[in-house]
Amino acid sequence: MARKKRKVPGLNASSTADISFILLIFFLVTTSMDTDSGLARRLPPPPEENQEDAQIDVKERNVLNILINAAGTIRCNNEAIEISQVCEKAKEFINNESNRPDLPEKHLKNIPLLGQCAITDKHVISVQTHRGTPYNVYFQVQNELIRAYNELRDELSKAKFGKLYSALSEEQQEAIREYYPQKISEAEPKKYGGAK
C-alpha cells in the first residue's frame, strides 16, 4: 500500500507586513533619543579672504576676567568667589550703574526706541578654564553669566516697555540687546594655579 504525502497547510502571511509596521511605529514612539545639550553661542562671521588679522585693543577696565581652575575654584578679577556670586558680579560689571572708574566705561549712544542712553557696550566677560576644569562648574558659570544678562534685560524691558524681555516685539528686543549686548569670550584652556 502506497502512502499518500500529506499536504502541509500554508501560512497566511498577508498581515505580517501590517504587524511589522505597527511594531516599528510602537518602538519609534516609545523609545527616547538622547539629545545633545550645549551652550547657545553666536559665532562671529568668518574673516574675508583679503582681511588682515586685526589687533583688538580692549581697555583693562572693560574686561571682567573669570578664571576657573582644575579644582573648580572661581576667581573673578583675582578675587575668589562662589558660583552663587557670579551673576551679581557680572550684573554689577555690565551695568556699572554708578559709573565707577574700575568698571566698563560708559558712553552715549542713540538707540532706536530707547533714545540717547549711557551704555557700557565695550565690555567683555572673559572666561578662562584649566584643562581639568569640571564640566559642571564650567556650565554653572556660563548659566550664571547668561542669567545676569537675562535679568538686566528684563529689568530694562520692564522699565522702558512695562513687560518682560521675552514678551517684547522683535524690534523692542533688538533695542534691549543693543543696550546690553552679550559679550562672553572664551579663552583657550591653560594650565595655571591650583590642581594640575
The secondary-structure element order is HEEEHEEEHHE
Beta-strand share of residues: 15-25%
CA-CA gap between termini? 93 Å
- Relative helix content: 25-40%
Alpha-beta content class: alpha/beta
Largest sheet: 5 strands, mixed
Strand order across the largest sheet:
3-2-1-6-7
Over all CA atoms, what is the radius of gyration?
29 Å
Assembly state of the chains shown: single chain
The low-confidence runs, each spanning 5 or more residues with pLDDT under 50, are none
Tally of DSSP β-strands: 7
| Structure annotation, total helices | 4
Shape: elongated
Mean pLDDT value: 84
Describe this structure in words.
The chain has 196 residues and is α/β, with parallel strands linked by helices. Helices cover 33% and strands 16% of the residues. The protein has a five-stranded mixed beta sheet, covered by helices on one side. Strands 4-5 form a two-stranded antiparallel sheet. A hairpin with a 3-residue loop joins strand 4 and strand 5. Helix 2 (83-95) packs across helix 3 and helix 3 crosses helix 4 (170-179). The N and C termini lie far apart (93 Å).
How do the helices and strands line up, and which of them pair or pack?
Blueprint lengths: L15 H15 L32 E6 L5 E3 L2 E3 L1 H13 L11 E5 L3 E5 L4 E6 L5 H27 L8 H10 L4 E3 L10
Parallel strand pairs: 1-6, 6-7
Antiparallel strand pairs: 1-2, 2-3, 4-5
